[in-house]
Write a structure and sequence with these properties.
The protein is of the alpha/beta class. The protein contains ten helices and 13 strands.
């Protein structure tokens, strides 16, 4: 794979924002480097109240032409997509002229997992002359470091579960299903699918309350899919993940260092310490 082109550090950056706190964190890191950020908020994903006092352009999913036109007018040559977004149906998007002209291509993107859909859609923006960047390329501070983020560290048994989870995710990755699994005693308790990580953890909590899970605590393991385009949808964790893992009765959370986005790392570490959980960045075993 060829190396990505160098970042255009002196030009404004178009930031397409989904839900959560990550888009604002990325914007703050980029602006701290002296680079102007042009914000686009995805309707029904980003909360406008979080952006009070900031200028932004609202976008419906599917308004690729509007995004390209305004980004170009603002002098942007690079675009970053960041934040949570519930996968829309094909009939749930609001295509503008650019999307309508390429509706058959967009429809083909829906015939696959999230990574396939994102890569397919962003090619249209690249054809408009933009470079698509990963948020971690413009704000590397958001990536998980190697080692523990709080006071606690995984035990030898936890490490065995982590390696087991990583091996499963590497094997399942080509099916483009999910990025997370819960493992206890080298036994898989749950696999992430369309419900997302928090939904999977809520399912584990329910199963444990119903005594359908009797295994000792266990570990949440998250990793990018082997074939995943690292510019989009890297695994992410935040304080809410810690709280959900605690409700599920887990011992901790393991993610791939330098390949996982961490929202509010200080708050996350504090939440982990309060809950008695470890959060650790580990080396990947996926090759």
């Amino acid at each position: 794979m060829s190396a990505p082109p160098p970042t255009v550090a002196d030009g404004p950056l178009a930031l397409v924002c989904g839900g959560g706190s990550l888009p604002l964190a990325v914007a703050d890191h980029v602006e701290a480097r002296g680079r102007r950020v042009v914000l686009f908020l995805l309707r029904e994903a980003a909360d406008p109240k979080d952006y009070a006092g900031r200028e932004y352009t609202p976008l419906y999913v599917g308004q690729l032409g509007k995004l390209a036109r305004i980004a170009r007018t603002q002098g942007c040559r690079e675009i970053v997509l960041i934040g949570s977004l519930v996968r829309p149906s094909l009939w749930g998007i609001r295509p503008d002229w650019l999307a309508l002209k390429n509706l058959s291509r967009i429809a083909r993107g829906f015939r696959g997992g999230d990574n396939h859909l994102l890569s397919n859609s962003t090619k249209l923006l690249e054809e408009q002359g933009f470079t698509l960047r990963g948020a971690h390329e413009v704000a590397p501070e958001i990536l998980a470091p190697e080692g523990a983020l709080g006071r606690l560290r995984p035990t030898a048994d936890d490490h065995a579960d982590i390696e087991f989870g990583l091996a499963y995710l590497a094997a399942a990755g080509p099916f483009d299903i999910g990025q997370a699994v819960v493992v206890a005693g080298r036994h898989i308790l749950a696999v992430e699918a369309a419900e997302g990580t928090d939904g999977m953890l809520a399912r584990v909590a329910t199963l444990r309350a119903e005594r359908r899970i009797r295994a000792p605590r266990g570990v949440l393991v998250k990793a990018p899919k082997p074939q995943q385009d690292r510019r989009f949808d890297l695994p992410s964790i935040g304080p809410n993940t810690v709280e959900a893992a605690a409700r599920a009765g887990l011992a901790g959370i393991a993610v791939i260092a330098k390949e996982t986005v961490v929202a509010e790392p200080v708050t996350l570490a504090e939440a982990a310490d309060r809950a008695g959980l470890f959060v650790a960045g580990v080396r990947g075993s996926q090759g």
